[in-house]
Amino acid sequence: MITAASPGGDCDYIFKIIVIGDSGVGKSSLTVRLSEDVFYKDYASTIAIDFRMHQMTYMDKRVRLQIWDTAGQE
């Protein structure tokens, strides 16, 4: 989903991303790598859902990614 941010806000666009897949395949590793630029070899399984944000500039536009990491039991 792409949403144009409100005028005067801190970003131009907001993307809402839901990461789905089987348990233990690396969804949390992917979301943490993107949002914090780190990689951990070991993770505890996500319980319910985790939420992270990442801000970036793309083609001179300020973009906010809202990343939802699911537990893998959808």
UniProtKB/TrEMBL annotation:
Keywords: GTP-binding, Nucleotide-binding. One of its GO terms (molecular function) is GTP binding. It holds the Pfam family Ras. CDD domains: Rab. The keyword Transmembrane does not apply. InterPro entries: P-loop_NTPase, Rab, Small_GTP-bd, Small_GTPase. It comes from the Eukaryota. PROSITE patterns: RAB (PS51419). This is Small GTP-binding protein. It comes from Trypanosoma brucei.
